[in-house]
Amino acid sequence: MTGSDGQAFPADPGLRLRTARVQAGLSVAEAAKRLRLPPDTLQALEAGHLQALGASVIVRGHLRRYAAMMGLPEQEILQGYDASTGRLTQPDLRQVVTDPAVRSGVRRAALRPRHAVVAAIVIVLLALVSWARHYAPKTAALQSPAITSPSRDPMP
């Protein structure tokens, strides 16, 4: 397997990370301290005992951070991990969302001032209609002439 710089590197992501750590002159304890991980977790990453570390998302996070710390391409490390586990390569959603080429094709839905005014007018009209339907019968009944009962004549 070759990297983006054309150099051959081990397909095993753990071996590649360990090689980079040793070349940088870091001990397991120093690298673990920088990553804020227990040393045995770092050793498990390098040895390829990834099932013991938990869910794939956790392992991928550790590998990503370790690769970034060592200055290695994160995607290549993650592709090596995916290949070793038989998983399909996961897309890097951060690049998909933040890639200007992708963003330029996405049309943003913006509320224009004219649309906002029309929406406000519609809302006010709906409120008036609702008010008229609810209160108009009551006020009309109050304004109608009062029905008076015939007055009773006292008995003669």
Characterization of the model:
The structure is a single chain. With 156 residues, this protein is mostly helical. Helix content is 63%, strand content 0%. The protein has eight helices and no strands. It has helices at 13-23, 28-35, 39-47, 56-70, 74-85, 93-98, 100-105, 113-143. Helix 1 packs parallel to helix 4 (56-70) and helix 1 (13-23) packs antiparallel against helix 5 (74-85). It is rod-shaped. It starts with 12 loop residues before the first helix and ends in a 13-residue tail after the last helix. Mean pLDDT is 76; it is low at 1-6.
What does this entry show, briefly?
By secondary structure, the chain is an all-alpha fold.
Q: Could you give the topology of this structure?
A:
Layout: H1 13-23, H2 28-35, H3 39-47, H4 56-70, H5 74-85, H6 93-98, H7 100-105, H8 113-143
Helix pairs in contact: 1-3, 1-4, 1-5, 2-3, 4-5
Quote the average pLDDT. 76
**Unreliable runs:** 1-6
Bulk shape:
rod-shaped
Taking Cα atoms only, what radius of gyration do you get, to the nearest Å? 36 Å
Q: Sheet with the most strands?
A: none
Helical amount: 55-70%
Kindly, what is the distance between the CA atoms of the first and last residues, rounded to a whole number of angstroms?
Answer: 123 Å
Number of strands: 0
The total of helices stands at 8
Strand content: under 5%
Structural class: mainly alpha
SSE order in H/E notation? HHHHHHHH
